Automatic annotation (TrEMBL):
This is Amidohydrolase-related domain-containing protein. It comes from Penicillium canariense. It comes from the Eukaryota. PANTHER family: 2-AMINO-3-CARBOXYLMUCONATE-6-SEMIALDEHYDE DECARBOXYLASE (PTHR21240), ISO-OROTATE DECARBOXYLASE (EUROFUNG) (PTHR21240:SF28). Belongs to the metallo-dependent hydrolases superfamily. Coiled coil: none annotated.
Amino acid sequence: MSDPLIVDIHTHVYPPSYIDMLRARNKVPYIHDASDGGPPRLIILSSDDDSNIPLDQRGRPVDSSYSDIKVKLDFMEKHGIDCSVISLANPWLDFIGEEQASEWAQKINDDLESTCSQVNGATEHKGRLPPLFAFGTLPLGAPQQVAVADEVHRISALSHIRGVIMGTTGRGNGLDDPELDVVWGALQDTQLMLFLHPHYGLPDEAFGGPEIVRRYGHVLPLALGFPLETTIAITRMYLSGVFDRFPKLRILLAHSGGTLPFLAGRIESCIAHERTFQVNGGDIPGPQRSIWEVLKTNIYLDAVAYGTAGLKAAVEAGGGSADRLLFGTDHPFFPPLNEKDEKWTSVTTNYKAISASFSEDQDAVVGVLGGNAVRILNLK
């Protein structure tokens, strides 16, 4: 039996033009070239941009793995990954103003398409998958959301784009913002996957204040803030009836859906007891479809959970089958702690968790590692 296909659907890249744009900025997000000769620092979280932290120590160091596609391909080969669906990392284009949003979205998306085309054209596939596909990005800052919908339709015709990546704030008002309906409609019409990814986390006060957050580095914002941010965003979409209006919308949730698999039953119960919601003094009905139905028909989860408990919850939330779960690495984030390590612990941990979670179902392992992605994203 040949080795299973391995497809990484959660892997990021900052195109060089995006890096240059960040380097020219002096407020979050920005890149700071360390004065001590050390590696550049990427400051993308507001909590990192703290005057109490020396500038050369803010954020995280960035190297060529963030922007050089050759480094990405080396990483794939080292970890046995056949195909990656690359996407721009947070904060995407959320900070770009109205005048430049569409221009930058088209540039980034064309760069992603060109990169995939060049790499795939120069690679011997040996009967397996081409190595690169991509999730595009959207000009959410555009003054009219019709421009966003137009970009969705434009990139749907590109050969290597299989979806779009988006943060949890949309246009700044959350994903229950009625202005986003035109975007949801375009995604449903084209059947491009929406990869929903966190960035903003929770307010420092949720963890005890800025001093507590600084004390524990990125652990509280990333380990707790990101999953809860995702859960809140998708729940607001659900409560506002997005999945009633767009029943064929497809969404891939990062980090195994945050806490949604664990809290879906509680959300359903609270909705039932709330009965109706108050908006501008009037009663409106809650969502018409069960959250369990939405989980089984509209939502997919990546397998970036780092443990069996999270993966098993993700499977149960999706109806008990692993056919909606997709492997990911979150590269280039969470690199090895020891420079001598050849393999990334963050990646091997996910491999081990998948193997342990489905130890008695080899078909499920094959599906999660790559077969599901091939089918769901039509990777050919």
